[in-house]
Amino acid sequence: FAAEGPVFCSGHDLKELSSEDDVKHHSQVFELCAEVMTLIQKLPVPVIAKVNGLATAAGCQLVASCDIAVASEKSQFATPGVNIGLFCSTPAVALGRSLPRKVALEMLFTGEPLSAHEALMHGLVSKVVPEDKLEEETMKISQKICESSKSVLALGKATFYRQITQDLDTAYKITTKVMVDNLTLRDGQEGIEAFVQKRKPIWSH
């Protein structure tokens, strides 16, 4: 995900949330947003946010929902809904799963933005680079990902999100089975054979 201009994503159009519209319309807006955010994690490929500017409210939620986020040094992240009387409750779902609780709550209670480096320090973004290096760094990461097996990446991503909410014992039970399943994939065996034979693997896709 990327954007042009000084704003990465400012979230919902507040004009869509006025009292002129009914509860059904408001529900549809937030349900669609939640569907988009959850679909990102259900996609079988990694999703990268390339952030160059301000990400607020649902825009901040979008960054938190992506698998990887690369930000320019000028980027900022905020959930300012509280300041206009609309607490960022849905963005809080993604923020609360990406940030330490007290950092997320300070953002939600004050609406004050995190700088790019603060976002990196707390785990909201993966990497911060100068603005003129943002495209290069994002492409470098995506190209490295593309060197791996698509089926293995899909299995790994799905498993990561499945186990992360579990207790330690359950997480290891899930991932132990998946490691065994991974070995039954053609690409699982191809990768091991290629490593032993000191050659590049030839993936099935």
Automatic annotation (TrEMBL):
GO terms for cellular component: mitochondrion. Keywords: Fatty acid metabolism, Lipid metabolism, Mitochondrion, Transit peptide. Gene3D superfamilies: 2-enoyl-CoA Hydratase, Chain A, domain 1 (3.90.226.10), Lyase 2-enoyl-coa Hydratase, Chain A, domain 2 (1.10.12.10). May play a role in fatty acid biosynthesis and insulin sensitivity. GO terms for biological process: fatty acid metabolic process. SUPFAM superfamilies: ClpP/crotonase (SSF52096). This is Enoyl-CoA hydratase domain-containing protein 3, mitochondrial. Coiled coil: none annotated. Its main location: mitochondrion. It comes from Nicator chloris. PANTHER family: ENOYL-COA HYDRATASE DOMAIN-CONTAINING PROTEIN 3, MITOCHONDRIAL, PTHR43602. It comes from the Eukaryota. Belongs to the enoyl-CoA hydratase/isomerase family. The keyword Transferase does not apply. One of its GO terms (molecular function) is hydro-lyase activity. It is found in: Mitochondrion.
